[in-house]
Amino acid sequence: MIVLFIKARLEHVADLSLPKGYTYTVTVKDSRGEDERKGVEVTSTHEEELPGSRGTANFALRWHKDSKMAAHLNVHEIEKEVKTKAKDILRSAYTAEDEGKFIGIVGFDCRGMDVTDWQPQDGFTVTSKSGAVFEDVDLSEKEWMDYDEKLGESIGIYDLEWKLAAVKL
Q1: φ/ψ of residue 97, rounded to 5
Q2: Are 94 and 125 within 8 A, CB to CB?
Q3: Domain ranges of the chain
Q4: CA distances from 11 to 15, 47, 89, 129, 151 (A)
Q5: Cα dist. 122→18, 46, 75, 132 in Å?
Q6: Basic and acidic residues bias located where (predicted)?
Q7: 3-class DSSP state for residue 53?
Q8: Contact status, residue 76 vs residue 167, Cβ threshold 8 Å
Q9: pLDDT, tens digit, for every residue of 42-86?
Q10: How does residue 39 score in pLDDT terms, banded at 50, 70 and 90?
């Protein structure tokens, strides 16, 4: 499983999350070659049949026209906290307690391809320390700021970083 880990600096933010069924924009690479596709959109809500198989996947492609097998991936949204053997932590939201640490937010189960990059977009949900909810937050610029009227303070997400790593669950 390739897991997307994020880390950010939070100002008056209780948590940062993505809704179930979020569409991730990623770069995928042929695990046996050099071919690469950028800007691929994948989501857990899309399902397609795998050619020549009884199985399904959230995304599939053939790297070459004459390939017998389609490379594919499935998106695994993390619904509860999971501690792995490698002590990586996976959870459905990045919280104020996580600040400064990489936390896994989604997994990609890949066959014949690897996810090599992620491009953050809009669609994030931010809950401030006052409980105010900000929806469809855009983190494509790696930061976001707003004003929380309940709190009477500015809130923000800064220095968004991410990494992709193979994790055994």
Answers
A1: -70, -20
A2: no
A3: 2-166
A4: 10, 38, 22, 9, 12
A5: 10, 19, 18, 18
A6: 33-51
A7: coil
A8: no
A9: 999 999 998 777 889 999 998 887 777 789 999 999 877 676 655
A10: very high
